[in-house]
Every structure is written in C-alpha cells, then in structure tokens.
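testing teh design pipeline on a random one, pls ignore if ur not involved
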C-alpha cells in the first residue's frame, strides 16, 4: 500500500489513481471497520435484503462484497477513480453480477436519480476530504464545501424513508456540523453510535423523515 507524503494527499484524485494503479488486481483495503465489525448494526438498520444501497467512495474495500455475501444484492458502488472502478468491476462481474460499479464524484453524484436509493453508506470517504484541514475546530472553507456537498447529494438520491450511514473516527463535535445545518433541506433525525473499545469509531445514522 502506497502511503502519501502528506496527509492532505488523501483528498486528491491523483493520489488514489496512482495508488490503485500500483496495487495488485486483487488488492483490497478496508478503512476503520470491516463489515463483520458492524454487521449487527447494518442488519438492524437494513432489514430488507432487497434495499437499494449506494456505497460512496467504495475504493477496493471488501465491504460491498461482504454485504453481498450476507444477502444484500442490490448495491451500486461509486468512486471517482476510474482505475479502481474498472478493477472492481472486472473482479466481481462474473461472481456478483447484481452489483454495479460507476465512476462518480460523491460531491455531485451526476446521473443518479432523485429519490432512487434506500440506503447510502460512507466509510471514510468524507474523512478523506477533510485531510487538508490542520485545525479540526476551524476547517477551511473548501472542506466544509466538499463535505456539505456530499451530504446534500446523498439527501437528493435517498428515498422518503432512506438512511445515510456514515462510519468515521470523527467525534460528534467535529462531525455533526456536516450532517446538520442549512444544507440539510429535508426533515431528518440523527443517531450516533460509538464503535470499539480501545480506539473509538462512530456510526452516524441520518434518517430521512420526509
């Protein structure tokens, strides 16, 4: 795995394209938590195995694969790196044909219809867009713009009773600002669950109420 010289490179397309190009065809990496770590939460939040699920910034994580093996077949995986999308599409097209892989930027989600998904999942993607910030208490305007743009697009594509699941190491006083506020134009409820014991991760669950 190629690590960046500077932390803020995690937020650039160049870094991810270079990394995925250099990695083996069967390489995989899961940020923060694996599906097994959070499966009980996911099953409670998504009781229907027919739910339409959008995986935001999928990379080469096995999270979608493991969800598929658990019975969730209708998963659309998006990432802005065409290199990783092509690799993942080739890896799964024969054994998991129901899953789709599309090149898309989570800040725009161009081509995805309004109210077309039941669930959207972000595991570390929004965090990557925050890496240019050296002050978590006062992030730069571009970080705020990028993160709120992602949330706004997620709200657009989620159905009336849809759910946005965001898994991160970010504590609530640093992350709630992106999940609430003027850019959240729909009525929602937010729940926060703490994951892990020695090092805490968090699962934010933003439910659409209208």
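output:
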């Amino acid at each position: 795995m190629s690590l960046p010289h500077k932390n803020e490179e995690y937020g650039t397309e160049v870094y991810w394209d270079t990394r995925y190009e250099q990695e083996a065809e069967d390489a995989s990496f899961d940020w923060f938590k694996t599906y097994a770590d959070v499966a009980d939460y996911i099953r409670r939040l998504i009781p229907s195995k027919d739910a339409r699920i959008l995986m935001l910034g999928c990379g080469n994580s096995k999270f979608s694969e493991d969800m598929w093996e658990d019975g969730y077949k209708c998963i659309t995986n998006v990432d802005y790196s065409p290199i990783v999308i092509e690799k993942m599409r080739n890896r799964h097209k024969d054994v998991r044909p129901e899953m789709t892989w599309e090149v898309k930027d989570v800040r725009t989600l161009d081509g995805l219809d309004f109210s077309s998904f039941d669930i959207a999942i972000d595991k570390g993607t929004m965090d990557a867009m925050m890496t240019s910030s050296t002050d978590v208490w006062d992030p730069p305007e571009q970080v705020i713009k990028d993160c709120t743009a992602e949330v706004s697009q997620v709200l657009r594509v989620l159905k009336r009773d849809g759910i946005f699941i965001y898994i991160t190491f970010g504590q609530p006083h640093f992350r709630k600002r992106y999940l609430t506020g003027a850019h959240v134009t729909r009525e929602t409820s937010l729940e926060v669950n703490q994951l892990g014991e020695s090092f805490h991760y968090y699962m934010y669950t933003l439910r659409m109420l209208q």
